[in-house]
Amino acid sequence: MRIPMASQICCLLVGSSMLLALLSALCMVAEEDEQTSQNGGWKKGGSLVTLGPCTITRVNAANLSLENFAKNFVDAGPVLIEGIDNNQEFRRECTRDNLITAYGHRRIKLTTATSTSLVRAPVSLKYYIENMMQAQSVQTPANESLYHFGDTDREEWKSVFDLYNFPAYQVPGMEPMISFGLAGPGTGVPMHFHGPTFAQVMYGRKRWFFYPPSQDFRVGYHSDLSMLQWYLEEYPLLDDVTRPLECTLEPNQLLYFPDRWWHSTLNIDESVFVSTFLSPSPS
Ligand SMILES: O=C(O)CCC(=O)C(=O)O
Questions:
Q1: Ligand 1 centre and the CA of 183: distance in Å?
Q2: Whole-number pLDDT of residue 12
Q3: How confident is the model at residue 218 (pLDDT cuts 50, 70, 90)?
Q4: pLDDT digits (tens, 9 = 90+) for 62-100
Q5: 29-69, pLDDT tens digit by residue?
Q6: Residue nearest to atom 8 of ligand 1 (CA)
Q7: Does the pLDDT of residue 6 top 60, yes or no?
Q8: Which of 48, 160, 228, 235 has its CA 20 to 30 A from that of 267?
Q9: 207 or 20: which carries more pLDDT confidence?
Q10: CA–CA separation, 165 vs 1, rounded Å?
C-alpha cells in the first residue's frame, strides 16, 4: 500500500476544510432564506443595531383587562403588552411579495427621518421596497434618510387599512387613526412627542426610546443626526440619569405610551409597522 506524502495529506485537509467552509456558508444562506420566508419575505438583521434591554413595564395581555388598562395604564408611562394576536389578516396582506404584487404600482410619499420630517417626491411602493429599504449607513445624515411612515393616501389605502384591527385597549374620550410604515434596518425617527399612541410591528423588530414629558433629556440629539449615528456614537455615552427608558417591540406585541412622552425609534430589521395615534373624539 502506498502511504500518502505529507503534501497530499495537506491537500486533502485543505480541500476538506474548504468544503466545510463552503457547506457552512451554504447552510447560513439557507438559514437566512428560511428566516426571511417565515418573516413575510422581509430580511432580519443586516444593521449594526442589536436587541436592547427592556426597562419599561411589561405585561401579558392575558393579565390585563380592558378596565385595568383604562384605569391604571393610560397615564402611567410606556407599557409593552405581550401575547397580542389581533392582526393576522393584516399581517398576511403585508408580506413583501403581496405588497409588491398587489400594490407595488402605487405611489407613496417618503419623509426625511428628521424632527422636522420634510416630505420628498413620491416613488412607487415597488421601487421603495426593492431599492430604498437597504440598511442605513452611519454616514448618511438624517436629512438624506428617507422613510415611509404616516404619509399615506387614506382613500387609496382604505381597503388595506380596514384589515387592521385597532387595539382593543382604549383611552377614554379618544379615537384612533392608523399610520402605516415600512422601513429598512438601521433607520428610525428621532425624539419627538405627540398624543397617546399604540404601536405594533407586523414584521421586524424595532427599538423604542422614551423620556417622560417632564424630562427633556434629548442629550446628543440634533436635527440632522440619524438615529443610527445617535445610537452608535451618543447613546453609549449616556449615564443612569440621561439614559432613556427603552424596549424592543416585536410582532405579537403592542406598545402604548401616554400623551406627550418623548420617543424615538430604531429598526433592527426591515420593518412593517403601524402606529395608532389617539386624538380627542369630536363631542
Ligand atoms: O415606528 C416608527 O419608526 C415611528 C413611529 C413614531 O414615531 C410614532 O408612532 O410617533
A1: 11
A2: 56
A3: low
A4: 999 999 999 999 999 999 999 999 999 999 999 999 999
A5: 556 555 676 799 999 998 899 999 999 999 999 999 999 99
A6: 275
A7: no
A8: 160
A9: 207
A10: 75
Q: Which domains does the chain have, with CATH numbers?
A: 43-280 (2.60.120.650)
Ligand 1 atom, smallest distance to 264 CA: 7
Atom of ligand 1 nearest to the CA of 188: 3
As given in the structure block, the three cell numbers for residue 102 are 398587489
Going from the Cα of 95 to the center of ligand 1, the distance in angstroms, rounded, reads 20
Ligand 1 close to Cβ of residue 129 (< 6 A)? no
Amino acid letter, residue 61: A
Q: Output the residue whose Cα is nearest ligand 1's atom 2.
A: 265
The pTM of the full predicted model, rounded to 2 decimals, is: 0.87
